[in-house]
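RECORD TYPE: inverse folding
INPUT: structure tokens
STRUCTURE:
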């Protein structure tokens, strides 16, 4: 089955109606040279981070790509492995320094680990990359604002 925008909207609406909260961006970038990450994204949206990571490890053996490394970092961060997640976010940025998803998720990692100055550095990069705004920038702004209310 091909997942369309309508499928995603319906799933989001169902999640909201059932009282859940939607995941953040989940790297919705589709680079032209990226491998097919549909299955991985589906696992991540279902909070099956271990399953996504298993699939990503296989992909990483044959696809050195920023999107793959970014989603590896995301899955690892969600599993609580911050040091390894950091390594993969940095690896994603080595391949594409302007990867908005990696910038957002790296910033969120910094928020979660209490390094707000580094999170703000990532926000500054996203502000430069999308001066008119973008989902990644908005999500990181929300994470920083939420952190400010907690502290």
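DESIGNED SEQUENCE:
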């Amino acid at each position: 089955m091909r997942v369309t925008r309508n499928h995603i909207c319906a799933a989001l609406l169902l999640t909201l109606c059932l009282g859940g909260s939607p995941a953040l961006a989940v790297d919705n970038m589709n680079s032209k040279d990226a491998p097919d990450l549909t299955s991985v994204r589906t696992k991540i949206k279902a909070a099956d981070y271990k399953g996504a990571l298993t699939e990503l490890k296989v992909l990483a053996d044959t696809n050195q790509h920023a999107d793959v490394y970014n989603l590896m970092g995301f899955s690892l961060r969600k599993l609580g492995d911050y040091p390894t997640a950091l390594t993969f976010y940095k690896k994603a940025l080595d391949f594409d320094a302007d990867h908005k998803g990696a910038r957002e998720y790296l910033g969120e990692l910094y928020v979660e680990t209490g390094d707000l100055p580094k999170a703000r550095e990532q926000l500054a990069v996203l502000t430069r990359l999308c001066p008119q705004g973008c989902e990644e920038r908005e999500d990181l702004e929300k994470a920083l604002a939420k952190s400010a209310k907690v502290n």
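NOTES: The longest helix spans residues 135-150.
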